[in-house]
User: Which sequence fits this backbone?
């Protein structure tokens, strides 16, 4: 595993690092924003999100961290928001190591959540499964159905793939 895109579940990073110590972990920016906005009044949300964009849309990690420091100075009214970004910065800023094409793949867990939603949708109507094999069949059929909806190729996939081979060459060499 090269890169994990995860939400901010307690202990998930430690679990991943124990099994895949060489993997990169990127916490979901979308989850971080949602979590931040839970603590902000409605009248401040638009201007606060504009300032948050300066952090996660920065070109480099240094620019992003500088924007975070500016954010802290500007938004002392909401100390939890900036402390949460600072506390999670190590895994929120992982994607700055990669070009923008790869960043667009790993900054959010939404695609993973869409697959999980499709599996849940098919499984929720079943009260009991007769055995483990039945569960695997239902999950397999759910994934086949979800996959049929993926009608277009990932934009710039050939560019993304070539960049991954450069960034992770020593780990991908056996799979190429």
Assistant:
């Amino acid at each position: 595993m090269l890169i994990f895109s995860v939400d901010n579940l307690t202990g998930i990073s430690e679990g991943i690092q124990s099994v895949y110590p060489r993997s990169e972990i990127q916490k979901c920016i979308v989850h971080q924003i949602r979590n931040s906005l839970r603590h902000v009044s409605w009248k401040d949300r638009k201007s606060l999100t504009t300032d948050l964009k300066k952090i996660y849309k920065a070109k480099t990690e240094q620019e992003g961290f500088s924007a975070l420091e500016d954010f802290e100075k500007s938004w002392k009214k909401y100390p939890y928001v900036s402390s949460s970004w600072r506390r999670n910065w190590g895994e929120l800023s992982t994607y700055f190591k990669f070009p923008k094409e790869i960043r667009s793949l790993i900054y959010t867990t939404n695609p993973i959540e869409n697959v999980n939603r499709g599996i849940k949708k098919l499984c929720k109507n079943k009260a009991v499964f007769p055995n483990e094999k039945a569960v695997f069949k239902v999950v397999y059929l759910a994934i086949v159905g979800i996959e049929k909806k993926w009608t277009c190729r990932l934009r710039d996939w050939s560019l993304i793939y070539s960049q991954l081979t450069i960034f992770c060459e020593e780990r991908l060499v056996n799979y190429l």
User: Anything to note?
Assistant: Residues 110-172 form one domain. Residues 132-148 form the longest helix (17 residues). The two ends are 15 Å apart (CA to CA). The chain has two domains: 3-98, 110-172.
